[in-house]
Write a structure and sequence with these properties.
The complex is a heterodimer of chains A (699) and B (300).
Chain A lengths: L1 E2 L2 H9 L2 H12 L2 E5 L13 H26 L2 E2 L13 E7 L7 E2 L2 E2 H14 L6 E7 L9 E2 L1 H10 L9 H12 L8 E7 L3 H4 L11 E7 L10 E6 L6 E6 L6 E7 L9 E5 L7 E5 L7 E8 L11 E8 L3 E7 L12 H6 L11 E7 L3 H11 L7 E4 L7 H12 L3 E6 L5 H8 L5 E8 L4 E2 L15 H7 L1 E2 L3 E7 L4 E5 L5 E8 L2 E9 L11 H16 L12 E3 L3 E5 L8 E4 L2 E4 L5 E5 L5 E7 L4 E8 L2 H4 L6 H14 L13 H35 L2
Parallel strand pairs in A: 4-7, 4-9, 9-10, 18-19, 18-20, 20-21, 21-28, 29-35
Antiparallel strand pairs in A: 1-3, 5-6, 7-8, 11-12, 12-15, 13-14, 13-16, 16-17, 22-25, 23-24, 26-27, 27-28, 30-33, 31-32, 31-34, 34-35
Helix pairs in contact in A: 1-3, 2-3, 3-16, 4-5, 9-10
Chain B lengths: L17 H13 L14 E6 L11 H7 L3 E5 L6 E7 L13 H18 L3 E10 L5 E4 L5 H12 L24 E7 L5 H13 L3 E8 L1 H4 L6 E6 L5 E5 L4 H21 L2 E7 L5 H12 L3
The chains are: A alpha/beta (699), B alpha/beta (300).
Chain lengths: 699, 300
């Protein structure tokens, strides 16, 4: 017989003094009788204790038993010898040992992991000498072979075991254990010992498991019944420039500290350190993915003061990329037109981040009446990263020779130029001024029947391939009244064309930059496609991005978060197939679809994914699985229900639960004791009354 | 043969309805008697009844015999001027006992039964409550009267009486009882735990007024034969004094003293020509009723 809480049992035994005292006290107290008269009564010697104690014995014993059972219940007694069958000489024992992250939580003075080790070793101590033992860790590697060893060697393996930071699922390991037990003959009793803290992630799949009838499953719970521990949950909401990190902590003690660090900078160059106090039971916090006026990969660390069962999980990590806004120059011809009649009115609306926040953020500079040469010069001079600039040129722009030269220089150095046609497109002058910079030779306007039909757009279309089917369907027919007669120049690529093969969107590279011509007006003079958000907005934006270059564009899609040990699929830039990348000193190769499948490290933190040359591709934040950290999510009743399900799913005899040291089986003992205790307590007043009435009746 | 008159616990459910209870007891008592106790000697004719063996031949109505050839007895309303005084001890010592064996419950019912008997025999019952006082701080006495409504008022007062008084006013009855009354019957229902001198005064006063006196000594079985086993803390119901004693060890001394007490009571009664009848509350009432009737018969 052993006790989970021996001190409680000692205290309970000490409490036996209470019924003894009550008994003695009661015997010393004579029965009080209001009698007619005392005139015939002489005070006499009181009777001796010996004489009367015999009559009180049943009541006394009953009360002592009640106190004893109470002590046994509270001290969580369990009996090592309560197993249904005597211990055989040899057994085949598959020890499924939970080493999930939650096992690092504290339980008393030690961790749950240490407690689990002790329980497991106790189970191994009770096995016969010739027994075979296999240890299966959960979580473990699926393809790892099961090794059967002597109990002594298994104990050494247990000693060397350390907890992981991953989520653990007992069912997979139990299933594997049951399969491996099949190698033993019928003379070997087959037992699966499960040792776990029985947290949600460990047990949620147990209900789907079915055990063979000749396998006995014994489950031991380590740690407290319902430990309390708060955990971080790292997430994000919104898209593009509006994307925001959302952090939740189930029990924040005194707020959350958010610390951002720009990748590559020394510790002294940390961006910000904020302490956010959470008031009124608030548990979540939203912090934007910004870094002031600096751009690049940012590693974010969140900490909260420890004070719960697991100090190790009071930090969480996040990573994000802050993209530099794309400078966009909208060249508005000098006119007195009202705002909504301006050439760039719809373009400005279409390129607004409010419409396409997931795209590259754009920083507008509307130059009203400014000479194009000055504007292009301004872009080149004021923006050091001129390769990312974009100039949008609607029809009607008065392009002088100086302006054209400035634009040529701008494009050659990596800038983008987006040119729209229209009734005021001065074909001769612009074409001549740009000196065949345009990808098409633009002729005069020709009328359409009010609705232009485009060529079919496939999924592999370089511009619209990723659009939804609905968007692609809409792109088939454009509400246009006119178009230019245009001829594609040598070296230009037609991105889209009308059904009669007249080019609609054509692009051409020049130096490091790119020029795109759109065979339609940017304002409403040649139709109303500008007012159709699904057409004009999408097209304008994609064109702007393409014209400005998309080298960094993939970063907006990058997956930057994952749980410890998780397998993550990352999307890489085009032409990454076959390239080697490195994460936490492990090498991975991108597949043909530019996808990279990586195994995240086990230790939480922020890790760099680098290419073969050591250049940073992206940062990845690794956190504990929330279910492993937020331990309050699991209630005892849930555990019990899952175990009940498992028991029902297998043969009754096979699924008999461990009587020694297990939560479920000890609870049977305690439940029995509780019932006995309740019966005793119920019987006590009855017996007491009966006893007293019997005594009274004799008088 | 008389039917034993035990107080049934079920009957006590009707304890608030003393008339009903008393009537039950009385009817039970007279059931099976050979001789009518109701025959009277007044000139007022009551009824005819068939002749029964044992009836005196002088009571046969010969005129009826001549007409019908049947023997009938003429019965007359009994005429009496007997005054019955019932003295009920309401001292706290009378409160001892549980249920039907409670001395006060027993004595109260007995009192009601006796009052009913008196009423049935055209006597005038009255009750004095020893231990209860009236508005002038005298012993509460309901004077005898033979009216029917008086009888019910009497029982009503009886039903409301509890054993919560003192017994040391026993000698105060002198001023309440009229002198020169003839054929008065006084019945004292008490456990006798009053001061001996007061008892002596009480009986003397009754004797002086020519009352026939009956003392119904109501006792509980525990008082006659105490069977306490354990250590007991005895609390005197009258004085509140406490004595701690071993229930077994005290018996010898108790029996001795209690025997002396009984003897002193009996000798007191003997001295004052008072009929004495000891009643234990776990016994039937027959003994008390018989004693009463025989004592009453002595008056005629």
């Amino acid at each position: 017989m052993s006790f989970t809480n021996p001190w409680l049992f000692a205290a309970g035994v000490a409490c036996l003094a209470i019924p003894v005292w009550v008994h003695l006290q009661r015997r010393r107290q004579p029965r009080r009788v209001v009698f007619s008269t005392n005139r015939f009564i002489d005070p006499s010697e009181l009777s001796t204790r010996q004489k009367r104690s015999i009559q009180d014995w049943p009541l006394f014993l009953l009360r002592c038993l009640a106190v004893l059972f109470l002590a046994l219940v509270f001290s969580k007694v369990f009996f090592a010898g309560m197993a249904a069958t005597p211990k055989p000489q040899r057994e085949a024992i598959a020890l499924v040992f939970d080493r999930s992250a939650s096992m690092q939580a504290k339980s008393g003075d030690e961790t749950v992991f240490d407690q689990a080790k002790r329980l497991a070793k106790r189970a191994l101590d009770e096995t016969g000498h010739g027994s075979q033992v296999a240890i299966l860790f959960a979580p473990g590697q699926a393809d790892e072979p099961v090794r059967w060893v002597r109990p002594s060697e298994a104990k050494r393996t247990l000693d060397a075991a350390t907890p992981s930071h991953r989520a653990g699922d007992l069912s997979a390991s139990i299933h594997k254990a049951a399969q491996s037990l099949g190698r033993f003959g019928p003379d070997f009793p087959k037992i699966i010992h499960g040792v776990s803290d029985l947290q949600l992630s460990a047990i949620e799949a147990l209900g789907d498991l079915t055990l063979p009838p000749n396998v006995t499953l014994r489950v031991a719970k380590a740690g407290e019944l319902e430990p309390v521990n708060g955990g971080f949950q790292v997430g994000a909401r919104g898209r593009g420039v509006l994307r925001t990190g959302v952090y939740r902590h189930s029990r924040p003690g005194g707020g959350i500290t958010v610390e951002d660090e720009l990748h590559g900078e020394a510790k002294a160059g940390r961006l910000t350190k904020r302490e956010v106090g959470l008031a009124g039971g608030q548990t979540s916090l939203a912090v934007p993915y910004t870094a002031g006026n600096r751009y690049g990969w940012v590693a974010r660390t969140l900490t909260t003061p420890s004070g719960d069962a697991w100090p190790g999980d009071d930090r969480a990590f996040d990573a994000f990329y802050v993209q530099q806004p794309l400078p966009v120059l909208l060249i508005e011809p000098k006119s007195t037109a009202k705002t909504f009649l301006r050439k760039t009115f719809f373009l400005g609306r279409a390129l607004s981040p409010e419409n396409f926040s997931e795209e590259i953020p754009m920083q507008f500079e509307l130059h009203h009446g400014m000479p194009i040469s000055a504007a292009a010069e301004l872009l080149t001079l004021t923006k050091p990263d001129s390769s990312r600039g974009l100039v949008v040129l609607p029809d009607g722009a008065n392009l002088t020779a100086g302006g054209a030269a400035a634009l040529k220089k701008f494009v050659a150095s990596g800038g983008g130029l987006l040119v729209f046609g229209g009734p005021e497109f001065q074909a001769g002058s612009i074409d001549a001024a740009l000196d065949e910079l345009l990808p098409v030779s633009v002729g005069g306007p020709e009328p359409l029947d009010g609705m232009a039909t485009l060529e079919a757009v496939s999924l592999r279309h370089p511009l619209w391939g990723e659009l939804s089917a609905e968007h692609r369907r809409r792109l088939r027919r454009l509400p246009l009244t006119h178009r230019h007669v245009a001829t594609v120049r040598t070296g230009a690529v037609t991105l889209a064309s009308f059904a009669d093969r007249v080019p609609f969107i054509v692009e051409k590279t020049h130096g490091a930059g790119r020029v795109i011509f759109v065979n339609a007006s940017a304002d409403r003079s040649w139709g109303k496609w500008q007012t159709d958000g699904a057409l004009f907005v999408v097209t304008s934006h994609l064109l702007a991005v393409r014209a400005a270059g998309q080298a960094e564009n993939h970063r907006r899609h990058a997956t930057t978060q994952g749980s410890a040990g998780q397998t993550l699929t990352l999307r890489l830039p085009e032409n990454s197939a076959g390239q080697a990348f490195e994460l936490n000193k492990k090498s991975f190769t991108a597949n043909d679809e530019n996808r990279l499948v990586v195994d995240l490290p086990e230790e939480p933190g922020v890790y760099s994914l680098t290419d073969a040359q050591g250049g940073l591709v992206q940062l990845i934040a690794v956190n504990l699985p929330p279910a492993e950290s937020d331990l309050a999510a699991v209630q005892g009743i849930v555990v019990q229900r899952q175990l009940e399900k498992l028991r029902q799913s297998s043969d009754e005899e096979a699924a008999a639960f461990l009587k020694a040291g297990t939560e479920s089986e000890s609870s049977v003992v305690w439940r029995t004791l509780l019932i006995l205790l309740a019966l005793l307590l119920a019987a006590e007043p009855l017996i007491s009354n009966r006893y007293h009435s019997a005594v009274t009746n004799t008088k | 043969m008389n039917t034993p008159l035990a107080i049934d616990d079920k009957l006590l459910v009707f304890a608030g309805d003393l008339p009903l209870l008393a009537r039950n007891v009385v009817d039970g008592y007279f059931h099976g008697l050979h001789r009518s106790a109701r025959r009277g000697s007044s000139p007022v004719f009551a009824a005819h009844r068939p002749y029964m063996a044992g009836d005196p031949a002088r009571l046969v109505d010969w005129r009826v015999w001549a007409k019908t050839d049947q023997l009938y007895i003429r019965e007359y309303e009994q005429e009496t001027n007997l005054r019955g005084y019932l003295y009920l001890d309401t001292s706290r010592s009378m409160a001892y006992g549980d249920g039907a064996q409670n001395k006060m419950a027993y004595a109260r019912l007995l009192c009601a039964v006796l009052a009913l008997l008196m009423q049935n025999q055209n006597d005038a019952p009255g009750i004095g409550f020893i231990g209860q006082t009236d508005y002038e701080d005298r012993v509460l006495l309901i004077p005898p009267n033979s009216r029917g409504d008086h009888f019910h008022a009497l029982l009503d007062r009886l039903a409301r009486t509890e054993a919560d008084g003192e017994a040391d006013d026993l000698g105060q009855f002198a001023g309440l009882l009229a002198l020169g009354r003839e054929r008065a019957l006084s019945v004292l229902l008490s456990d006798g735990y009053f001061p001996e001198q007061q008892g002596r005064d009480f009986f003397t006063q009754l004797n002086e007024r020519g009352h026939e006196v009956l003392f119904l000594h109501v006792l509980h079985r525990d008082e006659v034969d105490p069977q306490f086993e354990d250590d007991v803390l005895f609390v005197d119901s009258e004085t509140g004094a406490e004595i701690e004693a071993d229930g077994r060890a005290m018996r010898a001394g108790y029996d001795k003293k209690f025997g002396a007490f009984l003897r002193s009571i009996e000798s007191l009664c003997f001295e004052h020509e008072t009929a004495y009848c000891r009643i234990i509350t776990d016994e039937p009432m027959d003994l008390a009723l018989s004693a009463f009737l025989s004592r009453r018969a002595e008056l005629f």
